[in-house]
Amino acid sequence: MDLLPLRYFRAVARHEHISRAAAELRVSQPSLSRTIARLEKELGVPLFDRQGRHIRLNRFGAAYLERVERALRELDDGRQELADAAGPVRGSFAVASETLLTLSSALVSFRTENPEVDVRIHQSSGVEMRRQLRRGEVDLCLASQQIDDPEVETAEVLREEVLLAVPVNHRLATRTSVDIAELADEPVITTSADYWQRQLTERLFATAGLRPHIVSEGNEPAATTFLISLGLGVGIMPEMASRHELGLVSFLRINAPDCHRTLSFAWRRHGYLSAAARRFRDHTAESLHHDVLHP
Fold first, then answer.
1. How many CA within 13 A on the CB side of residue 147?
2. Is domain 89-157+262-293 in CATH 3.40.190.10, yes or no?
């Protein structure tokens, strides 16, 4: 069963760049180009539009890519299912999370208990997670925002309150709670629009008839606390963060309804989730609940 031409095509289609795809596949560019040319000849249609050294997936290629990704996912799932049935838990899987700190404790204990399992971690936004799941680039996602896709199944892991973090010398630092209206003129540290912190921040301010004065936004949610501790602004953080940032910032409850985040695992509804990935999902859920009950 020669699947290499299909895997080569998938890589080139994703990158739309021969040299990058060759680097990922660890093959020479000429060899990769010849393989793609043979595949196009066999299919009887071009899969890419070529302009000099640039290539773009055309309508034939886009239609074929969808079928190829589905077929390769099924074959990879089948191989993993047979491996699970044949012996002890081993192998590899990939998991995505908005910040790696959420997974760090569970990952350490899981690897100690399952040394033969290789876990690959991706840091991704909710938007990116959906794409990664559909392409089969990750097996599991731990998301703080809903992934709207009929092909994705989810299971809630944890629901926790969201707090306001302020510098320890801030005018609100000695308070226990705050109204959003009191933050009208405050500089706000948050994430980019693809992350739940930004979406919740904008919703809370909009409900109060305000717009947040955002002075910093990024793709590393865990960096928010550090920037706040430097006195650059205020920002919202999950309650979990308050147990790991003692002394750096002060945390206040926010007097607003539905001010929480829900952590959920997500995976492909019709895909095969390996025994190792299922064990990691259950282990992580148990670890997170333990951290909440025994901070």
1. 34
2. yes
